[in-house]
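Q: Sequence in, structure out?
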Amino acid sequence: MNQPMKGPMDVAAAGEPIVTAIVPRTFILTVADGTPVRVPGGIHEMPESIASHFYSKANGVTIYVPAKPPKAEKLVVARTLDDESAAKDADSARPVLSVKK
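A: Exactly. Output:
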């Protein structure tokens, strides 16, 4: 009697890394032990061995790797000037911008 075809998660070995794969179209992959595995089109979780198999790559399968979050920008903290003389020195050091009329 015909048994339903296995999917990628049906052939996952215990402890094998699972990845998110982008599969452009459905295809059938025959694994090393002769078992046919139906890999459906779409975005799916599957064993890394299936997603990185040469036949999967030939069918356009790519492993999704999320972008790294942007690094937090360094915050620049300005010191406060407590005495008036330091404030005057700071004001005199600022560049003067002029606008031509």
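DSSP finds three helices and five strands in the chain.
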